[in-house]
Amino acid sequence: MKITNTIIIGAGVVFAGLCYSSVRAAQPAATKSVLEGVFNEEQQKRGDAVYAAECASCHGATLEGGEMAPPLAGSAFMSNWQGLTVGDLFERIRISMPDGNPGKLSRQQNADVVAYILSMGRYPAGKTELPKEVELLKQIKIDAAKQE
Ligand code: HEC
Asked: Which residues line ligand 1 (CB under 6 A)?
């Protein structure tokens, strides 16, 4: 009896492991990190302008959040996004923001505003801009920022 149970449980664990690895294999691995300088200062400046015009009224001038809108920087924001990818954040914004008028911004504007949000999260600027293709953005993982 005991032995059968062990075999059944063991087989279950192996099966779950196989399912998990095939799900993982279907997604391209996130090979880069926001810690590596994935946007540049120019893009960050453009994103600042987009943010001020389209997002600040709800999310606050310094991304602190507003009456209804959540913060886009700091620990509450990071606990939602850490471990996900820049592509996930980009898609979230592209599909649902600005609240009440999603789809208003171009892909380029969305990528720029994501660069600005990352810069405000104290991630370093680098040499190249964030791409606006979601498949490429999904390769960039959102790791925790280094503490000051
Ligand atoms: C009219 C107010 C309003 C505007 C303008 C607005 N947002 Fe939002 N945003 C919200 C609200 C409310 C939520 C939470 C409810 C929801 O998820 O839809 C939210 C949620 C979010 C989230 C998810 C945060 C999280 O941690 O889950 C992101 C990211 C975001 N907004 C980005 C943006 C960006 C970027 C812009 C500008 C392009 C923008 N928002 C403009 C009201 C707004």
From this structure: 54-55, 57-59, 68-70, 72, 77, 80, 92-93, 96-100, 105, 113
Confidence label for 148 from pLDDT (cuts 50, 70 and 90): low
CA distances (Å), origin 97, targets 102, 110, 144: 5, 9, 24
Q: What local confidence, expressed as pLDDT, does residue 30 receive?
A: 87
Cα 87 from Cα 84, distance rounded (Å): 8
- pLDDT tens track for 54-88: 999 999 999 999 999 999 999 999 999 999 999 99
Residue nearest to atom 1 of ligand 1 (CA): 99
In Å, how far are 5, 22, 98 from 12, measured between CA atoms? 10, 15, 45
Cα 54 to Cα 110: distance, rounded to the nearest angstrom: 11
Q: Using CA positions, which residue lies closest to atom 10 of ligand 1?
A: 69
Å from CA of 64 to ligand 1 middle: 12
Is residue 29 scored above 90 in pLDDT?
Answer: no
